[in-house]
Amino acid sequence: MKSDYRMSFENAPSVKTHLPGPKSEELIKRQDSLETESRTYTKSFKLAVKRARGSTIEDVDGNLFIDWFAGICVMNLGHANPIVRKAMIDQIDGIVHINELPTEARINFIETLVSTLPGSLKNRAKVMFTVTGADACEAAIALARHVTKKKTIVAFGGAYHGVAGDIVGATANYHYRDYAGLSLQNFHHLPYPYTYRFPLKVRKEDVSKVVVDQLEYLLRDPYSGAGAVGGVLVEPIQGEGGYIVPPDDFLPMLREVTDKYSVPLIVDEIQSGVGRTGKIWASEYSGITPDIVCISKSIGGGIPTSMIAYREEYDKGLPGGFHFGTYRGNPVALAAGNAVLNFLKNSDLLEHVRSEGSRIKSRFEEFSREFAGIGEVRGRGFMIGTEIVKNRETKEPDPALALKVKEEMFRRGVLMHTCGHYGNVMRYMSPLTIEKDLVDRGLEIFRDAFSSASGK
Question: pLDDT tens digits, residue range 16-51?
């Protein structure tokens, strides 16, 4: 990647105190006394943040960390990216909040966004603003139901589409619904083509066909038990489910069947989009055109915002206030988003992510040949999963070892998080702008941490 400046701190990682350091420990205690115990990330990374630059974070005790976390793929262009930062500051000097009325930031963003969309949505889509990723997915299924007048949404095992409102029914992990007061009514899950752990005994090359044949059965047979299907919601690469890359034929086959039965195909690009895989949208690799695209996370450059983009004809007759809210389309977030997308369009960053991502994946594959506890390495671009197992033959997951690796990496100054059905997948999701020396230092730390955690 061509660059005239370095955003990250030079000498990261540098851990000078025990973790958490004394100042961090004091702030954590104050947080614990006031904030909910349901927090999760503070259990993984015991530090209090002072500032962040590029792909590095400094805590209040002066310790420097390499960031392979990126706020869960929110900071794709790095912390304090000067281009994004300038766009935010310039917009703050204009207007920070207004409801729906046109601003230059809003119109510029929409025009840039639609110019990037996959397939025939490019330059022909409508946009509806939302606030969070869950809100975008909620709007998407509501739109699909409005268009088809059918209620059932088909989603997939391992899916994560958020935990707010009705969309929690599409998120596969049942514990998110424990206190939501919502049932699985009007949602039906099929297996995702997770070839490493596919639940049916079929040939690897037949996995996509088996899944899509099951979908066609639901669409064709009124006695399938699924109900009238109003939409299919899918991640082009599963995020929280384990950084699972489906076979190349999966999305094209899914598109063919949904076209055949006139069912909207909703593609959730919240984690996989905005350059994460080396293309602006992960679904571009398959050559399909989604009917609805869900967008959030990195699109706001760190400011919460989200949206859906969808076929123009879906907008016809859509009632006023169909999906409404005070904070949708914040001007500062949209100014940042316009800067993010233009940077991706006009730089060589995407090409860099593809080539550097391939190199990083190869290094993790080298580690898998060294350590028997690594069952599979998979991914695309900077979305790379390393699945940790107790036994390669049985593929028994080892979440305890994954947790130890994460803790050992943190102790050595690298933030790396887990995901997966069993919490046993280490995921590489650094900012796309990370400097090569930080990548290589982090990879050596991963190797040392894995060796220490596994006793090898």
Answer: 999 999 999 999 999 999 999 999 999 999 999 999
Token couple for 359: 């190199």
Nearest to 271, CA basis, from 384, 166, 191: 384
Helix, strand or coil, per DSSP, at residue 311 = strand
The secondary element (H helix, E strand) that includes residue 136 is: helix 133-148
Residue 226: other Cβ atoms inside 10 A = 20
Residues contacting residue 203 through CB under 8 Å, at least 6 positions apart: none
* Cβ 114 vs Cβ 281: under 8 Å: no
User: Is-above-0.90 flag for pTM?
Assistant: yes
Which residue in this structure is represented by tokens 């299907």? 229
For residues 384 and 198, what is the distance between their CA atoms, to the nearest angstrom? 19
DSSP secondary structure letters along 383-432: EEEEEEEEETTTTEE-HHHHHHHHHHHHHHTEE-EEESTTS-EEEE---T
Residue 266 is inside which H or E element, if any? Answer: strand 265-268
How far is residue 42's CA from residue 142's CA, in Å, rounded to a whole number? 34
Euclidean distance between CA atoms 176 and 168, whole angstroms: 7
Rg of the chain over Cα atoms, rounded to whole angstroms, equals 22
- The domain 83-346 having CATH identifier 3.40.120.10: the answer here is no
Say whether 83-346 and 22-76+349-454 share the same fold: no
Whether the Cβ atoms of residue 188 and residue 154 lie closer than 8 Å to each other: yes
For 54, 175, 305, the CA distances from 134, given in Å and listed in that order, are 27, 16, 11
Residue with tokens 């995921």: 427
**Residue that is written with structure tokens 């930062």 in the block:** 85
Q: How far apart are the first and last CA of the chain?
A: 36
Residues of the chain below pLDDT 70? 1-4, 174-184
pLDDT of residue 166: 75
- What are the structure tokens assigned to 137, written together? 């997915």
Q: Is the peptide bond before 20 cis (omega within 30 degrees of 0)?
A: yes
Tokens of 29: 């205690």
What are the boundaries of each domain within the chain? 22-76+349-454, 83-346
Report the top-level CATH class of 22-76+349-454.
alpha beta
Does residue 281 contact residue 294 with C-beta atoms inside 8 Å? no
